[in-house]
Amino acid sequence: MNVPALQRLLAELRQYGISDENVLAAIGAVDRERFVSAPFAERAWENTALPISFGQTISQPLVVAAMTEALRVGPRMKVLEIGTGSGYQTAVLSRLFRRVYTIERHKPLLAEAEARFKELRLHNITTRVGDGWQGWPEPGQIPFARILV
Hints:
Layout: H1 3-15, H2 21-29, E1 50-51, E2 57-58, H3 61-70, E3 78-82, H4 88-94, E4 99-104, H5 107-119, E5 125-129, E6 146-148
């Protein structure tokens, strides 16, 4: 992890009004470099969206922070995320929520994200391939305290 670049990013997020220290700590704990494609690794800590497979992007850190902060997290909550993508937002959420449920429509993207979760030992994430418009396929898991789209 590029600590100076991470510190610059966290300072920039604070300048943009992100004030929840738990959200900032979660972003600081997730190595964004592991979630970007190799050609973009040196840009991983920039406050910008970057391309991933299937015409998708890894969200800009400010967007991740603002969306996460807007959830007003409680540690015993479970959250549903629609659109796993690279898994970066999911990994940030996993640091804050008791359980994270995430749906991705592109099976290869989800497989890559699952491998990252395993490598990072993030065990509170449950994944599914599917259409997020259909919601979570197993009714036994609802209701969710929060939903992120």
